[in-house]
């Protein structure tokens, strides 16, 4: 990793911040490099026990404190109130990485100053098990070295991709940010359909969960094969899977439903950012 011993500061340490912090520690980042501003010490007790520095507020930070990176991991609705705590640290040597949905780079520039180095990151909840997917976009002032810092940070919890157009984070939020919830719903629906076909409820839930988890892992490991090809491999001519796919792939089937769902979530993301 490219942190070179400089401190990293977390503003807030909820589920996503905690997942990233755990990922950094698992990758060998020294606990003494890591600092958390979190009023509730009990919420970060596990990290403090491992040697991570805890600050109840920004007031306990050293006057000469100069972190390489500040992760903004508080909820979007309290970002306005929380941001001044680290605003004094804005400098060309520090990059801010925000995981707050709906808060744009221009929004941060208004509050931190136009020269602040800001990267927006949109991770998803599988980050909690090191299998997240994060899309990042960098402000104009961010250097290549600072982009690498942000990449190293988010790669601690999974895969990453960069975009150059910040507006693309709205469909990213709709697809990837919300995607785990859609998959969980798919598991619910599969299990319910299995029950209605006569399976015991506990067996239906297990079949649905393990099937979705296994299919996802198969996609991940099938390098060079598209999901379409994998689907065709499972679909025998005249077989049972084909009968189900005739319904799911009908003109009023799964694709138009999912397209409408992603469009609705994208619209909402844009509303929240305005």
The helix/strand series, from N terminus to C terminus, equals EHEHEEHHEHEEHEHHHHHH
Alpha-carbon distance between the two ends: 35 Å
Described by strand count, sense and barrel closure, the largest sheet is: 8 strands, mixed
**Class inferred from helices and paired strands:** alpha/beta
Q: What is the strand content?
A: 5-15%
Give me the number of helical elements. Answer: 12
Helix content: 40-55%
Key phrases:
274 residues; alpha/beta; 8 strands; 49% helix
Describe what you observe in this structure.
- Helices cover 49% and strands 14% of the residues.
- It has 274 residues and is an alpha/beta fold.
- An 8-stranded mixed sheet has the order 3-2-1-4-5-6-7-8, sandwiched between helices.
- Helix 5 (105-112) links the parallel strand 5 (95-98) and strand 6 (117-122).
- The chain is elongated and about 70 Å long.
Write the layout of secondary structure elements.
Blueprint lengths: L7 E4 L3 H12 L7 E4 L7 H5 L3 E3 L13 E4 L3 H7 L1 H4 L7 E4 L6 H8 L4 E6 L9 E7 L5 H12 L2 E5 L6 H9 L1 H18 L4 H21 L5 H8 L5 H9 L5 H20 L1
Parallel strand pairs: 1-2, 1-4, 2-3, 4-5, 5-6, 7-8
Antiparallel strand pairs: 6-7
Helix pairs in contact: 7-12, 8-9
